[in-house]
Amino acid sequence: MKYLEGRVKSMKTSLRFLSIIITLAFCYVVVHIYYTLNGGTPWGKANFKQEVEEYLSLKYPELSYSVESEYYGFKEGQYSAHVTTLETEFEVSEREGYGLWDNYPHSLWTKEATAICNDSLAEYTNDAKCRVELVGSGGLNEVKEPFPSYEQVRDQLRMQVNIHFSRSLRKNDNQDLKMILGIKESIEQTEISNVIDFTFSDVSFFNVNHEISTITDLENKAYYPEPIQ
Which residues form the domain of 60? Predict the structure, then answer.
């Protein structure tokens, strides 16, 4: 009898221990999934930040930088980090089968192109800003220091220009539409991009390219967002 009681007690202890193990494992899985869906686990971010710092220290030993944030892309299944310097900001990310990769030189070229764009824009208005994004590097993925200037690689790059106005479109005359056409021609001459988006607070003109040459052409490009219900 005592033997059976001992066996039962032992089984209860084992079941209790197994239940604790299952509960802890379940909690770990839930926590891991939660963090994965919300930018990564704290330990994953810490490990990736250390990898990024080692990578940048080896690749750019003279660069003063700060790793501002790390995040996990659930869709991509990899970590990335946002890095800032005194002159620009860029990303470091994982690439499957390749290791870490950064777009530091690309961010410098984008900054140069943005400055050129804003200089052209300043001739027409002071209530808008250019945002230039690199959408194609033309094979310039691994660039060693000293980096070529934007002017040296401009023909290989594919840029997207967005000009954002801090006001609504003036509709009482065609003054703003004429201005958009003038800005378009000016930026086309810089050869930054031949496709430009213009965004006002109430209307946008997407993909304004060399085929758009009249006010009527531009009006056909107008996109008015749906009002929020």
Answer: 42-102
